[in-house]
Amino acid sequence: MFKQTLLAATGIALLATIGAAHAQVGAETPEAEDQEARQDTIVVTGQKIERSLQDTAVSVAVVTDLQIEEENIIDFKDVIDRTANISTRDGGRFVIRGIDSLNVSGAGQGDLATIYVDGTALPRQATLQAPAEIWDVEQIEIFRGPQSTLQGRASLAGAIIINTADPTFEWSGRARAIYTTEEERFRFGAALGGPIVEDQVAFRLAFETSESDGFGTNVTTGEPLDAVETLIARGKLLFEPEALPGLSVLLSYSHEDVQSGEDFASLLVDDPANNRVGFSNDLIQYDTTVDIATATVEYDLNDRWSLTSITGWNEVEYGFVFDDDRTAAPIASRFFIDERETWTQEARAQYAGDTLQGVFGVYLSKEDTPRSFGSGQLGIDLVNDLGVDLLLQAPPFSLDAATAGFVVSQYPNPSIIQTDNNLTQEIETYAAFTDFEWQFADQWTLFGGFRYDVEQQSNTTEALVTIETPLPDPALFSFPLNQVIGGVNGFLQAEAANATSPLTAFDSPEFGGFLPKFGIGYDIDDDKSLSFVVQRGYRSGGSAINTAQATAFEFDQEFIWNYELALRSLWMDGALTVNANAFYIDWTDQQVRVQLSNNVFDAETQNAGSSNVRGFELESRYAATETLDLYGSVGYAKTEFDEFIVLISGVETDFAGNEFAFAPQWTVNGGFTWRPTENWVANVNANHSTAAYIRADRPQTSRDSEARTLVNFRTGWENDTYGIYLTGANLLDEEYLQTQFPNDPIAGDPPEFAQFGRPQTFSIQLQARF
What we know:
disordered N terminus, single chain, 22-stranded antiparallel β-barrel, mainly beta
């Protein structure tokens, strides 16, 4: 199936290119003019200066509001699945060019990719669950490759820009209702906007709510396993006063609530992909609330100069309650609450001349975490988590393996500990940046820019760890086992004492650095161009607590150099677009998790790794006839660690040559939209992602995150006001496993839980607009 999908997607580009060659020698026809008219100019906003997609050298995939509607893109996952070199994984995370949005080595605090909504960056906890729904969104821009020059921290792998619909001075509105089978999901959304003062003040309001029973059942409680409820509400106000020509003020506020259940199902049942069940006696639920406010002020000084100010504020409350043992027994449960407030201020000046375009700006942000608190019971495996068996075989005990195993068997597995952790944090960032394009000759353009970024962190932490499980009484054992049991008890109590720390405040050193960008472009003709750009990206360092020792440690920032070659081309009088980017990423001073002992909690982040990523993206759209549009894309990303040392059973192992976790090498997408009559429309699309490894810090013997090919469709009848549609997702009902745990081939414990992809679903959609 993969080969067929790959051939289909690349065939679109190849056949279109052959057609382009014929079109170069043929005369322009009225049909060609209609096809060109359908290829509307796509404007990219994420680089601070608005440019057309064809004039943007960096790799960016743009999803317009028309594509969102035609391709039945409902939530953020749908966007990712249908974009080259980006894929999803568990927990709301995503992977760009093989690089996980949080980290690739299990270490580090800063993110590697950031989502921006209406100009405001979302912190980590917001992206784990939200923004989940894509409603009343105008455009989504997915930037692949480092955006550190313009976006700063947390954009080493890329950035995703979401622009919601703005107010207009004409009345407009829309509504939709969707019912989806299998998960019994119903959603309803509406939006309305128009003028308040003619040509001066306008508004837009939008909301959507949804409820789903999910695809699984908790057999212990009889409740849905992975139920989801969402609510999003947004208001925008636009001022363009006649008294101040050239001034535009856009105020926006949005609120989103997401409640979701457990999305991991048991593997210990027959046919687990179609029999998704859980057994926990306690509730497992994740709650996220996101509030975002943005004030964007733009003022055109003249035809060439303009000023922009973007003030952003967001507040995120994220929490969960969790049954840590996931069984029907009342063994271990915990909860977590995280509250974050972020203020940002960006001010910039834009210049748009005949041969020079540029932006110059400053950026300030402050992220405050007044409370990040977790409490509850954890199950600890004395062998896999603490290495007690190896401890017993080493001096002073020096037991043989059989005796050591007998001693370990006297302790409950898992043993339960009570943990209470509290963290506060403040992160302040200051930056100055510039980015420009200079056409210094008829066909030649110079790209340049830099960012100087400075980050400061302040932290407090406290932890209390106690052993809840009764330890065996040494008096019940004869000599010398009583001495050994006493020694193990002392070791466990010492480990708990070491992990306990009073309230401690510590500051990190300054992070940041100089982040340059430079390149050159060549216009082959009016419709085709080549460019080569080199850019430096970074992720900030930080400080944290070694949980086992309750001591603070620091780690430095990490850097990449990204080398990128880009082709932008239009063919067949503009009816065909073929764009491509090829890249190589050199990653040094990489933050990796370094295990200091066989205690799994005795680990620190150190700048001890290096890696590289290489690949390409090819994307094409073709207005084949007056009624048929074709599109396809292919992405390839090969990840590889050059150095990655991990401590396993007391032995250092270098996993150089391993790939990143959850990094599929190939992603392939394709589809078509057909309008056979004025009122009927149909879209069919398919996307494929190859298999990936789940862990990077173990021998990679099998790709347990399975390959999958998803086929979707949307067809229906519509006029200018109403529409009714039938849609299908995962039409072939493909079963695929995204991740599973435990997943440690060395420990040898078989996986017990897994996250499966969405099964086949069908939906009925009703839509109205004016």
